[in-house]
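This section describes the prediction task in plain terms. A model, or a person checking by hand, is given the sequence of a single protein chain and must write out its three-dimensional structure as a string of tokens. No templates, partner chains or ligands are provided. The sample shown here is typical of the held-out split.
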Amino acid sequence: MENVISVKNMRESDAFTINTSVDSKELMLRAAQGVYESVNWKGQIAIVTGSGNNGGDGYALASILWDKGFAPVLLRVSENFSDDGLYYYKECVKKGVGDIICDSYTDFSQYDIIVDCILGTGFSGVLKNSVAEVIEAINRTDAYVVSVDINSGLNGSNGLAQPVAVKSDLTVSIGYYKTGMFLNDSSYYIKRLVNCDIGIKLLKKQYYLISKEELSHFVGYGSVAISAEEFAREYALNEEEFRTKPIKTVMKESEDSKKIFVVDYMGNKLIVDQGYVYFQSDLIESAEEKYTSF
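The expected answer:
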């Protein structure tokens, strides 16, 4: 079973790895390499970047693509950079990778592949209007869209769109799957999902991803199989708390009732067995399925 973790656990595990064994720029390069190996690259490629390390992944990816004979274009939604992001941006400038500051008026229709590196799993709150407009412009295109780490606009903890998110054909999770990839709005925005292991040492195991076959162990025998909407109506004393803290809410009901709950989020399932938490997703991409949709 693969690990599924919280954003907090991911952040702390990432920091621990950087402090003890792997330089942060090397981790960023590994993330970019993992994305590069996950996509059948062709045609005109745009990489849309934000100001943080998710944008840095995009700059490192652009550098790799350039070295492989492609000519990606960087579309930056911000003039700011993280320290590591600036390092790889300068590498792109040295190589001659083109870049512009973009907004909702940018012509995204000319690209065959658009890579979403605007916001990572650390994003919370509500999108700035300018970023939301860029996301909506990306969603209107016919391009093959790849989101790096998570779809920009999705909350990495609970999967809520804030208020909109990038619709991806493929999302490449970095390090470990995060809980928000399987909850609330995530299945609407993510078509296929794969994880890229970059060597981050996990500090704490939390939850697990199970296969569709393993799901049968939790269905029946008095378990409650229920949609998220039905759970909100029948069990959640506070529907807003259920949406923002779904794991905590279902765990409490499972412990109180001594029942297993299988909560369905349109292709993603949250399984809670009195303190034990699992996820199952129809969106996970197997090695055999790679590239088949593009």
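For orientation: The chain has a mean pLDDT of 95.
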